[in-house]
Amino acid sequence: MTWWAQRSVLPRTRRVGRCRGGCAGGRCCTCRSGIRTALPDARIAVDKWHLVALANLMVTQVRQRITRQLHGRRGTATDKVWASRQLLLIGYEHLTVKQKARFNAALAAEDPTNEIAAAQTSLGDDVAAQSLPQPSFATTES
What we know:
- By secondary structure, this protein is mostly helical.
- It has 7 helices and no strands.
């Protein structure tokens, strides 16, 4: 019998915390099978904030990798993509005309493979966060 099964039923209806791996209990979570085994009727929920944070992290990692491949070093203030890094974390539809021009110039100059633009596009729809329900707790159905 696992330690979780030995606990009373009451604590099982409370929130199941965020995975230490930083994935908020999503599809990539290594804890998912453990949650499913211990709480077969639990609903695993991912909130908007963590979803957007993970998408922003992905865009940042792609930008850093491309900069290292292109220049052989970390980004500096003279690199257009590095100087515009905060614009990459904002949905394109939320940028002003001036910001869009700066954004497009940075990608044209330093994104030859179009990988940074592709990663940023995942933020374009706010990572589909608008269609997600409000954050909920993983609870048992009973």
